[in-house]
Amino acid sequence: MKSTFEQEVKQSDRFQFTVCTPTYNRVYTLHRVYESLKAQTYRDFEWLVVDDGSIDNTRELVEQWQQIADFPICYIYQENAGKHVACNHAVRLAKGELFLCFDSDNICVPNTLERFKYHWDSISEDEKDKFVGVTALCMDKHGRVLGNPFPVDAIDSNEIEMQVKCGLAGEKWGFHRIDVLKEFPFPEIQGEKFLAEGLVWNRISTKYKTRYVNEKLQVVEYLTDGLTVSSIEIRAKSPKGTRLYYQEYLSLNVPLTKKFRNLINYIRFSFHAGINPLKILIESKRRILVVLFMPLGYVFYIKDVCQVSSDFKLI
Predict the structure, then answer these.
(1) Are 174 and 210 in contact (CB under 8 A)?
(2) For a disulfide at 290, which of 137, 246, 253, 284, Cβ 3.0-4.6 Å?
(3) Beta-carbon contacts of residue 266 (< 8 Å; ≥ 6 apart)
């Protein structure tokens, strides 16, 4: 039997934006996104709320909003599988051209979609197929930029180049073309509920550019139960996906200093994934460096085990 959403989505028109909010037990913050979308000056969008197995009354709250909102709201439920799986789910069902992931604990300024559309439209049509989207700045509740701004406004680059050449730091926020996200879906690893988004952004960077603009469009608040705060524990509990991120990073054209740090983490999370030292060495293209850095990677692994869980077994 098809879900109500799937029936609705076949009858609906296309949208410029699909705004997606993956959420897990965030009924106490989800109103921030709803109020932000209510206030948008640009109205050509749909809102997809992907409930990642919540046990609070998220469904009931969204159903109330569906009755009164002047924009389309679609509720999608999935068994708890993680944000990346929720995003894949939403991308498959989205009816927009551009996909904006809007976390359930943040807010945005009223002209966010208008400004995103302005910057997207400013890219010439004969160049647009080379771009995946537009990325802007985030700020805290006092209006201070998180991390650093871009060196100049309207830079056309990619995630990898921005990190290497511009020292990109701090949270940023942007949309992506849905057709590109379908081309580069998030890998789904059985039993793991976290995957570093950078893995997909790096893959996309090898083929597409992004326009980076110095506009503060989102207000970010880090909650004590959020992914960012509990980063080490979450990565340790999803070691295969985390290991894959660092493994692919090592093949990128980045300075050796960055590769050294990622090599240590690659070794670290290989241990978390239950991979023995010999296999780590055999699978690596830089075996001498692996031998040199393996003790340090193991030290970080032991530190993780002691810090976050007694469930991990020492190798």
Answers:
(1) yes
(2) 284
(3) 243, 246, 247, 249, 250, 297
Tokens 């999935």, located at residue? 78
Q: Tokens 């296309």 belong to which residue? A: 14
Per-residue pLDDT of 138-190, as tens digits, reads 999 999 999 999 999 899 999 999 988 888 888 999 999 999 999 999 999 99
Q: CB of 84 within 8 A of CB of 197?
A: yes
Q: What's the gap between Cα 79 and its chain centre?
A: 19
Render pLDDT for 29-61 as a digit per residue (tens, 0 to 9). Answer: 999 999 999 999 999 999 999 999 999 999 999
pTM for this one?
0.89
What does each C-alpha distance from 301 to 17, 18, 197, 248 come to in angstroms?
42, 39, 22, 20
Report the SS3 class of residue 151: coil
- How far, in Å, CA of 37 to CA of 33, rounded? 6
Burial (Cβ within 10 Å: 0-12, 13-18, ≥19) of residue 76: buried
Residues paired with 100 in a beta bridge: 19, 175
**Bridge partners for 157 per DSSP:** 210
What structural domains does the chain harbor? 14-219 (3.90.550.10), 231-308 (no CATH)
